[in-house]
């Protein structure tokens, strides 16, 4: 039997994060293999709804050797525009990607080195590697609560990653569960399509789209928030665990105001706690959740005010959000049949799944223990994780920097004669 094929570096996942590491390794002449279960950057086309837009301005879109240079840097690319933009990037280099192949097992071989089981159409294959980069995304498994199976089977249930448009759902009202970026925007998508929408909200904060003449995310970038290392970020670990602020880039970008949705007829509830048959129960948290989200909104605006004042920037005058609607009571139950709800969209996030990795690199919650992507397991690293180094990690804005650092670390670890990657342009 022949020895397994060996690659100095194997990258698991060909999304923009894994391919960014590949870009730098390629420019340093480091032999490596990228293994992808489907096709490069497929998630943008396959796991985004039809009316999806970026929530970060186009100028945030930067990848190694490639940056957005279109006519609308302060706009927000649609799903299809992002797919085209990424295709343009892939045309600029030739990463060594093996597609339609899944890494089903990764184990250490002694103190250094790894053995990977690759599963494809022709069966299993073993390869070995000195270094492995996990670029499979932060949290790949969709979360659906266990009581979902106890609900009336006539109710259609899908996760947010399966939602594409209102037409795929049966006629009738829709319950969206979750008010993070996906939940809030899917609720708006259904609402704008004329569907009756019920929305169960959690503790997600919100942010203004435009404030004092500029996009809030542009202000925050100027203030250094996206460049602040995780250890120095205000609020520490608690801030990093929070759901991302809800806002939208749709139709040129605007606020997502759940109170305005309610004033226009959307039914709002607090946190969904359990359900059985056609009855759902909610915690009485709606009022507090709306107030907290608005407080964060105004707090961010106040931070921008202080930045403008401290730097003597000429800008339009400050303002504060004032509620346009408030609940009379916090609803605690919903009869799906009586309300005509025929479908539920679960938008309550994802969880990690690294069960295929046999290495002591994870905390009690299954999350990688890493510093700038590097773990205590020699040769094992991660890329594309939220808060891996800064708030910008996991976003287009931070991927290039994270990939450059990680690839440079890999080159040093391999003790090759490749040039320092900091010099690669």
Automatic annotation (TrEMBL):
Protein origin, superkingdom: Bacteria
InterPro entries, per database record: Auxin_biosynth/cation_transpt (IPR050982), CHP04046_FMN-dependent (IPR024000), FAD/NAD-bd_sf (IPR036188)
GO molecular function, one term: flavin adenine dinucleotide binding
Keyword hit for Oxidoreductase: yes
Keyword Repeat part of the UniProt annotation: no
Keywords: Oxidoreductase
Protein name: MSMEG_0569 family flavin-dependent oxidoreductase
Organism: Gordonia mangrovi
